[in-house]
Amino acid sequence: MNCHASSVQFRYPGVMLAVLIFGLVLLSSLPVESKFKSLHCANYDKSLGEILLCRIKAINRYRNSISIQFRQKKTVNNVQMRLELFKRANGWRPFLYNISFNLCDFLSKRNNMIIGLGYEYIKPYIPMTNYTCPFKKNHLIKCTDLEFDIEKFRVRFPIETGEYALQLSFIVQRKVTLTLNGSAEYFNYREH
Ligand SMILES: *[C@@H]1O[C@H](CO)[C@@H](O)[C@H](O)[C@H]1NC(C)=O
Ligand SMILES: *[C@@H]1O[C@H](CO)[C@@H](O)[C@H](O)[C@H]1NC(C)=O
Ligand SMILES: *[C@@H]1O[C@H](CO)[C@@H](O)[C@H](O)[C@H]1NC(C)=O
Fold it and tell me: Is 93 in the pocket of ligand 3 (CB under 6 A)?
């Protein structure tokens, strides 16, 4: 937000001060806004499973959520994952993290702190919190009404206004079988 001096002349310093204080109170009560902008789910190996749901749902003007459902068609014993973060600046630029890890190892040992933070965040949105490998045939993996609450991340990472994207790739036997990529916009009124 840009506050330009208006043509109104303040004759009394007291009024000036009152306006200034009012302005500061207003600014600090403005919300930060964070919303999903896009979501793409791409299935590259339909023999392994199918995407049943991949959508963004509006809650109100300021909030929305995403839901994803994937049904396994084959039992999978080992899954490698890649997590890539991007920030929009003349197209998407890599940002902060590009992490590869073994999903089965993570689920049984919780051996990655960064992934652990993300997992703690999405846990309430996935019905069964103790997923472990193997991922069995006909298993339904779902994430329901996940909201983007930037305040939970801001505590740990300095995040400025902008559009960010996260791409998750599932890799089975060295081939990318599924990618989920979503972007979210974050607007901090206090910065403007
Ligand atoms: C992340 O790392 C992988 C493997 O090194 C690479 O292929 C990929 O391009 C990287 N992604 C980004 C966004 O830099
Ligand atoms: C996961 O937790 C549920 C409920 O707590 C339990 O019924 C199920 O057996 C657990 N599954 C595994 C693989 O531990
Ligand atoms: C996400 O996927 C869509 C469709 O494949 C692609 O256009 C977009 O560039 C991807 N975003 C990122 C950040 O990779």
Answer: no
Q: Give domain status of residue 38, yes or no.
A: yes
- What is the reported pLDDT for 139? 87
What's the pTM value of the predicted model, to 2 decimals?
Answer: 0.78
For the CA of 128, the nearest ligand:
2
Quote the ligand 1 centre to 98 CA distance (angstroms): 6
Q: 55 CA to middle of ligand 3, Å?
A: 15
**Is there a domain that residue 172 lies in?**
yes
Sign of CA dihedral 25, 26, 31, 37: negative
Indicate if the pLDDT at residue 188 is higher than 60: yes
Residue 63: both structure tokens together: 């909030």
Domain of residue 145: give its range.
32-191
Specify if 7 maps to a domain: no
Contact between residue 32 and residue 159 where contact means Cβ atoms under 8 Å apart: no
